[in-house]
Amino acid sequence: MKPTKRQMRGLLRPKLLTLIEDFLTWKATSTKSVNDLFKNFEQKQDAIQKMLVDERERFKDQEVVAAPVKSQRGQDEQKLKPQQSPLFQGWGENLSDEDQEEAQALFEKYGYNVFLSDRLPLNRELPETRESKCLQKKYPKDLPSIAVVLIYLDEALSIIKRAIRSIIDRTPEHLLREIILVDDHSSNDDLKGDLDVYVKSIEAQNPLFRMVRVRHVESLGLTQARISGWRAATADVVAILDAHIEVHKEWAEPLLTRIKADRTVVVSPVFDRVNYYDLDVVHYVPAAHAFDWALWCMYESFRPEWYHLNDTSLPGKSPSVMGIMVVDRKFLGEIGALDGGMKVYGGENVELGVRVWLCGGSIEVVPCSKIAHIERNHKPYAPDLSMSMKRNALRAAEIWMDEYKHNVNIAWNIPIKDHGIDIGDVSERKELREKLKCKPFKWYLENIYPQLDTWDNILAYGGMKNLDANICIDQGLFPGHTPIAFDCFNYGPQHTYYHSNGELYIGGLKSHKYNDNRCLADSGEDTFPDLYDCNEAVQKGMGIHWDFTQGKELKNRQTKRCLEIQKQKLVVQKCTGQKWEIQNIIKPF
Ligand SMILES: [Mn+2]
């Protein structure tokens, strides 16, 4: 699905913090319905709690921790002044105290400004954010028909109504065959009776067109909701969207024109961001939908060829989709729809992206098609994204990534063998891969996504422990340049990666070739080690290559000094034979 701004940075620590924020917010707003959805939450909570405690301790003094409104609530459920909430950013100062409290309560429940949404016209105008050349384009009248699937779980009623309204008002009547509402077992009462009334009124106004309702009797997660919507569709093309969107005028025609020309192309519109606080639309420029080895999605530049064409209204190739997609209905079935073995959230979009490219299709982002999409402050339904993210990522890797599949383990710091995470039965999906005669993943890396680093020469990863002092290397204050010794807890800031050339990266491993890692370095001058982007460290004349074997000393090749612990501090000094051990070994060294 769509990444938050934090996820888009593609760094491990912000991801973890996002998770913590989600968790704190969830805890504060927890309701019976959420409890019902996550019956097995207790066990998961233990794991998250541990991360929380560790991370809080570690980053107490740093500004990146969750906004005060959340951390306070998470700790003691203390009642806040609404003005302190992120909801009140340039909005709502003039409301009465009562209204502010109501707005805040709705915001906590939904993650966006429902109070305001309830008061805006359903058919509000959107600003023109398309590339200027798009405004001159003419599209054929004779295009494939389209079904629009809106999936939701406890979405606000006015938000869903506005999505429906925008689709009906801004899709040519002769092309729009049906709107399919897929409810993944919401508990909100207004999504029953009140939504029914609205749907009836739409049907009465448009007798030729279908409004289809699909309701899951239990929550099956994002992927299953999308599959249910696709199954219920009858039109030539299916658009699978979130329900917290508004389509822009002429959104469908450019997509349908592309699919008419080539039924194997999966297309995505360009999203504009709708602020969760004031519901204003912020212009986003067209970009490719990419991902890292943890399978978090992020925006990335198109390939250089696209920029050489010098026409920003043209479709650009994309390694993946973020979750919103428009595709020939039958073609999606031919290539295996979505992987029904994915749970809750995450990874399913990358799985589709890779599969489409490997099995005979392609993916494009179409700049002239725009959809405004609310980026929530928090997701009301998913306190523990990382658990399903990890599991789904391992599943996608097992099916599609061949000899590169272990990179997903490395990205999540999961052991390669005996990790104990159940990825479900993958035999059916592997058979599908055989049946479709899909290309090897190496082809995808070489031809479709060459920016993704293959991590071929990483020998070992995870926490790096000093066996004499029983303490770990930690990146220290970020973005500072002095790594420290700290109690081993083996989360992001303590992740290390040993490269066959002797480089030792700390605090994360970059997935993309265009990013530099942070190298452990020794200047040879003072007592403390350094941590810089590897290129920068080399420019500064520092030694970044270390001789190391498991259970032995860690010795800088240039300065001949060793990384050691002295009085609980991480130092570089004349070697005294202190031993180090790294958590996970990929190949012997
Ligand atoms: Mn969304």
TrEMBL record:
GO terms for biological process: protein O-linked glycosylation. GO terms for molecular function: carbohydrate binding; metal ion binding; polypeptide N-acetylgalactosaminyltransferase activity. GO terms for cellular component: Golgi membrane. It is a single-pass type II membrane protein. It is found in: Golgi apparatus membrane. Its main location: Golgi. It comes from the Eukaryota. Its EC number is 2.4.1.-. It is an enzyme of class 2 (transferase). The keyword Membrane applies. Residues 148-277 form the Glycosyltransferase 2-like domain. Its cofactor is Mn(2+). Signal peptide: none annotated. Pathway: Protein modification; protein glycosylation. Residues 461-580 form the Ricin B lectin domain. CDD domains: pp-GalNAc-T (cd02510). Keywords: Disulfide bond, Glycoprotein, Glycosyltransferase, Golgi apparatus, Lectin, Manganese, Membrane, Metal-binding, Signal-anchor, Transferase, Transmembrane, Transmembrane helix. Belongs to the glycosyltransferase 2 family. GalNAc-T subfamily. PANTHER family: N-ACETYLGALACTOSAMINYLTRANSFERASE (PTHR11675), POLYPEPTIDE N-ACETYLGALACTOSAMINYLTRANSFERASE 8-RELATED (PTHR11675:SF50). This is Polypeptide N-acetylgalactosaminyltransferase. It comes from Oncorhynchus kisutch. The gene is GALNT8.
